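Quick one, tokens below:
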């Protein structure tokens, strides 16, 4: 039997859309749905209870048993999901599917996932192919790969156009908790989600633990899910930035092989410094403070829910990117990038993408990171008709930006020399190594 758990926090109407898509699913047979409201401060729980009552009154037919509970304290996404997973396993479910409140499922997605897991008993965790809901031909995520050479988690096929070149099944290291199915046997052997993460990296670490326990992890192309979050979405506070940074550091400090720890410390410290530097460059000082708070908490072993003083108002507006393209009538893109073109057209539907460069038209150049640009030895080298946009949508568009980038490398070296010893000491503490 299949169990479905949804953890909600202040997204009641999105949770209702998720539930509606579950109710419209085909081929599930008997199933259980458990919704956890994680101490929402809005009317989410009342909306959810009303929908649960409608379903149980028979308005949606038969097949499922739906229940909901409200937690008095925010347990984090993993704490809420664990509560539901434990209940559903206790109710006799052989498989449990976790769904994010911002996700809707295709009518055959859950049945296809369930059928795949039943026919592939060594798959302990399975995801679907998640699309951008507002751009449904583009994939948002299709599996997660953990890269221990570059010490990062890579979202596979992110922002790729879906076509025949995308495989029907992707074997990977983890999948997103927004659409994840696990077997009872995998949970029994690997345990539940790591609640010390509270938010973010819980699904990635859980997938890695399930693989360490001897199971495969995969994502299924025939399970189509749609996520409503925009790639240009803006969070109201620094919560996501803090937990993503802290938990990434904690993961690699915990699981990296001893002989790679020195390299890992440099790579991750540079990543934190890059974020800090870019946030300061964009006058997002609360976000920059969040970067450093996350690093210090990781170094001092502070996990679980962050102190309230760590979570600040998000002052990263992204308005520079938006305002810039709102003001452009024509642009030239050096390399074809259909996804970026769609993002810009959402900002300015009337903008024209010309086929050839011209002196009076802005040229867009893509790069991995604007901090790695080496074109600016002198301020006079800056060209105001060229705009650089990196993979994270950071933009270098002004002479001030160019000057800031020129000062990056010496500042980075000072930071690394100050912080690397602290990271290496923390790794020794985690692993019980005496200096």
């Amino acid at each position: 039997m299949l169990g479905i758990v949804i953890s909600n926090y202040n997204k009641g109407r999105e949770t209702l859309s998720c539930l509606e898509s579950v109710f419209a699913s085909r081929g599930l047979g008997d199933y259980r749905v458990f919704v956890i409201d994680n101490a929402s401060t809005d009317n989410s729980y009342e909306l959810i209870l009303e929908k649960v009552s409608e379903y149980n009154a028979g308005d949606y037919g038969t097949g499922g048993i739906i229940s909901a509970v409200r937690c008095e304290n925010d347990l984090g996404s993993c704490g809420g999901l664990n509560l539901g997973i434990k209940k559903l396993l206790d109710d006799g479910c052989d498989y449990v599917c976790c769904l994010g409140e911002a996700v809707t499922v295709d009518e055959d997605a859950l049945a296809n996932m369930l059928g795949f897991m039943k026919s592939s008993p060594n798959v302990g965790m399975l995801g679907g192919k998640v699309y951008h809901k507002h751009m449904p031909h583009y994939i948002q995520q299709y599996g997660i790969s953990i890269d221990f050479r570059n010490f990062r988690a890579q979202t596979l096929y992110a922002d790729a156009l879906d076509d025949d070149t995308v495989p029907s099944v992707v074997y990977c290291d983890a999948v997103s908790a927004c659409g994840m199915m696990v077997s009872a046997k995998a949970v029994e052997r690997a345990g539940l989600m790591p609640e010390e993460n509270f938010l973010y990296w819980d699904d990635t670490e859980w997938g890695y633990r399930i693989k360490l326990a001897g199971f495969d992890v995969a994502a299924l192309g025939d399970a189509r899910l749609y996520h409503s979050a925009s790639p240009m979405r803006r969070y109201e506070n620094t919560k996501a930035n803090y937990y993503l940074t802290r938990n990434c550091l904690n993961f690699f400090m915990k699981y990296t092989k001893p002989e790679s720890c020195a390299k890992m410390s440099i790579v991750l410290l540079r990543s934190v410094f890059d974020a800090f530097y870019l946030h300061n460059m964009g006058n997002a000082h609360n976000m920059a403070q969040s970067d450093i708070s996350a690093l210090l908490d990781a170094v001092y072993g502070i996990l679980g829910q962050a102190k309230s003083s760590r979570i600040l108002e998000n002052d990263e507006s992204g308005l520079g990117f938006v305002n810039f393209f709102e003001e452009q009538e024509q642009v030239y893109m050096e390399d074809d990038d259909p996804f970026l073109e769609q993002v810009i057209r959402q900002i300015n539907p009337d903008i024209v993408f010309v086929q050839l460069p011209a002196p009076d038209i802005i040229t867009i150049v893509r790069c991995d990171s604007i901090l790695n640009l080496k074109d600016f030895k002198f301020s006079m080298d800056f060209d105001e008709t060229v705009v650089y946009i990196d993979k994270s949508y950071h933009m270098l568009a002004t002479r001030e930006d160019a000057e800031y980038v020129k000062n990056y490398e010496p500042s980075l070296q000072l930071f690394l020399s100050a912080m690397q010893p602290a990271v290496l000491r923390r790794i020794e503490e985690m692993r019980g190594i005496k200096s």
